[in-house]
Write a structure and sequence with these properties.
Chains A, B: Its cofactor is Zn(2+); Mn(2+); Fe(2+). Two copies of one chain form a homodimer. With 141 residues, chain A is an alpha+beta fold. The first copy, chain A, is 43% helix and 23% strand. Chain A binds a DNA duplex (25 and 25 nucleotides) through helix 4.
DNA sequence: CTGGGTGCAAAGGCTTTGCAGTGGT
DNA sequence: ACCACTGCAAAGCCTTTGCACCCAG
């Protein structure tokens, strides 16, 4: 599905700004912060405003077109929701690479919580550390 | 172990501010944001400054006396690291209650990452949703 | 044409930092 | 006495908001 169709399907207007935001996220191999996204959108569509980015991140998130990943030290990271389905991220503190992982802890936890009467709506699971490449650079065994 | 000993053991000076911060966190049944903590510390030790809180949250965190939990919409929550050991939180979006859970996804994931050459240093796992009490209030089945 | 969407500018909130002074050890 | 620690005030950063204009449907 292309970007225009994604937006229309969610009953959102197709504006150049939204197309730029989704294009950047689509092309990006890793997850992006709002500010990183903003800088990249500017290259694609100069003149785009801060607030447009923020407003649209909220909108696109609420329509389920994006995922949000809380960052280790404040702020959030965003990624486009691809068809591959639900996954989580292992993030290298050295190079910032975010490695997607299929494993989801909720598979184990869901039934336990159900017994308890708790209905989960969202969850976050991220792992931080060093990838093999960065371990070598930092000379960590 | 009492608070003074905790600080000394970490080679930190025992100041009234630090004692107040740890006391508040010790007494608190749920996790607190920096600002919530600040307000409560003020009652215990009026005149304490913002920056003292923030600086000490960093310090205490780096010495392993605290845990940090990324909040759903920006900011972090803090809790004192108790002896009970590692756990995670299920947080009710209705009443804010944070229910500790022993389950940790890293038990499953650790060996997979090791094969991959990735060394995890930190991880976050939180679940958000509605507890049974709040479901009734919100009239959600 | 009509409301959702955008740009602009300003405010807001939380957090960090520099500096001088204080207090723990 | 020394240096970690604190208070204060200011700056910093990211994010949100109000308002007028604009353009996609």
């Amino acid at each position: 599905m292309n970007i225009d169709e994604m937006l229309k399907q969610k009953q959102l207007k197709v504006t150049p700004q939204r197309k730029a935001i989704l294009t950047v996220l689509e092309r990006s191999e890793s997850v992006l912060s709002a500010q990183e996204l903003f800088r990249e959108v500017l290259e694609l569509l100069p003149g785009t405003n801060f607030s447009t980015i923020y407003r649209n991140l909220d909108t696109l998130l609420s329509r389920g077109l994006l995922c949000r990943i809380p960052r280790e030290n404040g702020g959030d990271l965003y990624e486009i929701r691809r068809e591959e389905g639900h996954h989580h991220h292992v993030i290298c503190k050295g190079c910032g690479a975010s490695i997607p992982v299929d494993f989801c802890p909720m598979e184990t936890l869901n039934c336990q919580l159900e017994e308890y009467g708790f209905t989960p709506t969202e969850h976050h699971f991220e792992v931080y550390g060093l990838c093999s490449k960065c371990k070598k650079q930092h000379r960590i065994p």
